[in-house]
Amino acid sequence: MQSAAERASERPTGQWQGNYIVRRIDPRLTTLGASELLRVQVTQDRGAATATLDFAASRAICIDPLDDPCEWIGATEVVPAVITATGLYAELSIAVDRSFFLHLSSPDNNAEAALFALDGEVNYSAVLERDDTQ
């Protein structure tokens, strides 16, 4: 049982707190496993305009996910995220030579998501799925 001091020190979680799967929308990817772009864990305090995002890149991160696996698979990092009225935004260091940017429109199932790089070579539409199995 927690003491009053322990309960007082706890912070309520924000609406983004949780585990998610970001699935790439691509007609070539016909299974759930193939469409998995990122696994994401968001940590947010209630009312905070920032969060921490812990991600792991999956097979659909590759420009051509049906080709040989690319070096981006398995990239992991914990990064800061910003929360605005239009969603959650984070810069992901998946590759040494480019920055990726993730946008999640809302913490709801089937919310729109996007992953892109400023060089234009990567511009993936995606959908967000809550992963309550973890």
Short description:
The chain has 134 residues and is mostly beta strands. The protein is built from 2 helices and 8 strands.
Give an account of the 3D structure.
By secondary structure, the chain is mainly beta. The chain has one domain: Beta Barrel (Lipocalin), CATH 2.40.128. 7% of the residues lie in helices and 47% in strands. The chain has two helices and eight strands, in the order H-E-H-E-E-E-E-E-E-E. An eight-stranded antiparallel beta barrel has the order 1-2-3-4-5-6-7-8. A hairpin with a 6-residue loop joins strand 2 and strand 3. The longest helix is centred in the N-terminal third of the chain and has 6 residues. It is globular. The model has no long low-confidence stretch (mean pLDDT 91).
Bin the strand percentage.
over 45%
Q: What is the first-to-last residue Cα distance?
A: 24 Å
N-to-C order of helices and strands: HEHEEEEEEE
The main β sheet shows up as: 8 strands, antiparallel, barrel
How much helicity do the residues have?
Answer: under 10%
Low-confidence stretches: none
**Strand line-up across the major sheet:** 1-2-3-4-5-6-7-8
- Radius of gyration equals 16 Å
Mean pLDDT: 91
Named CATH topology: Lipocalin
Characteristic terms for this protein:
7% helix, globular, Lipocalin, 134 residues, mainly beta, 8-stranded antiparallel barrel, 47% strand, single chain, 8 strands, 2 helices
